[in-house]
Specification:
Elements lengths: L4 E6 L2 E6 L10 H15 L6 E6 L3 E3 L12 H20 L4 E5 L2 E3 L1 H7 L3 E5 L3 E3 L13 H8 L2 H10 L3 E2 H7 L4 E3 L4 H14 L2 H11 L6 H16 L2 H11 L10
Parallel strand pairs: 2-3, 3-5, 4-6, 5-7, 6-8, 7-10
Antiparallel strand pairs: 1-2, 8-9
């Protein structure tokens, strides 16, 4: 039986692919569970330094599976939302950077999944849509948190109220995506960037990611995060290696210690 989530490894980079094209990789309960378990496993893998999240067959993720929605069952709906939040927390809380490679549709929860990642690459075939207002719902999967970090307040309201469909070029213009590449170059571009992320000092990246997840905040909050993080890093082996490499004019080799 074919797995609905596959993992390919190349050195310190893992490419996680949602592989249920007949359902456009919709976040049905079994996909949410499989994706969460896969990412949780990679989060604890010390040999993995960066992760690419992709979809299969010209679709990133079509969002929640409406056919499996437990209409009128509050307890079942709460369980479903709890699983979605576990997936979201896994992405935002892990210390490793994630790159979303969006080729095709990223609708509803699929858009939330992409924007929860640290960096969004998309192709010209990408289509982003919050979609929730089309079915009488408010946004979930963290979109009320992630979307305002990327676009203006007015655009947040437009995208959430109207469920406008945004193509790859407009996504780059608005800030939904960080880079636009051709569809046939998307996989290689994501891998090249992941290799760069994987070469960065993992302790520093992890602490930076954790700090960014708690912002925006006051200047006092930011300075507190800086103080706590830097004091840890000043005593790390990675900082010692980075300082020596700088003085010796060579590339550092970080170990995550």
């Amino acid at each position: 039986m074919q797995s609905i989530v596959t993992v390919e490894r190349s050195g310190a980079v893992a490419c996680v692919t949602m592989n249920q094209p007949e359902r456009r990789n919709a976040l049905a309960p079994e996909m949410r569970e499989a994706l969460t378990e896969t990412l949780e496993r990679l989060a604890g893998d010390i040999d993995c330094r960066a992760i690419i999240l992709a979809g299969s067959d010209r679709s990133f993720c079509a969002g929640g599976d409406l056919s499996s929605l437990p209409a009128g069952d509050t307890l079942a709906s709460r369980k479903r939302m709890t699983l979605a939040h576990r997936l979201l927390r896994t992405i935002t809380d892990m210390s490793k950077p994630l790159i979303a490679a969006v080729d095709g549709t990223a609708f509803g929860a699929g858009m939330g999944l992409a924007l929860a990642c640290d960096y969004v690459l998309c192709s010209e075939r990408a289509r982003f849509c919050t979609a929730y207002s089309n079915v009488g719902l408010m946004a979930d999967m963290g979109l009320l948190w992630s979307l305002p970090q990327r676009v203006s307040t007015g655009q947040v309201r437009r995208l959430l109220y109207t469920s406008a469909v945004v193509d790859g070029e407009e996504a780059l213009h608005l800030g939904l995506a960080d880079q636009l590449v051709r569809s046939d170059e998307l996989q290689q571009a994501a891998f090249d960037l992941a290799v760069q992320f994987a070469a960065a000092p993992p302790l520093a990246v992890g602490l930076t990611k954790a700090a960014l997840a708690r912002l925006p905040g006051s200047l006092d909050t930011v300075m507190g995060l800086e103080l706590d993080g830097q004091l840890q890093l000043f005593s790390s082996a990675d900082f010692t290696e980075g300082r020596h490499a700088f003085l010796e004019k060579r590339r550092p080799h970080f170990q995550g210690r």
